[in-house]
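User: quick one, fold this
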Amino acid sequence: MTAELFTLPVALSTCAGLLYAGVLFVVALVSVLASTPQRRKDARATLTILVRRRTR
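Assistant:
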């Protein structure tokens, strides 16, 4: 019974983590491979926002 309660939250958190990792990968790839300097700069700024560490 208890294992059934944890299955859905674990699956959802796994999907969310994989989606976030995929977004980070795509943005990092764009920041390196974009054809124009402005797009590379924008992608790097977005990547900085996504991986920024917040103080608690």
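User: anything notable?
Assistant: The chain has a mean pLDDT of 86.
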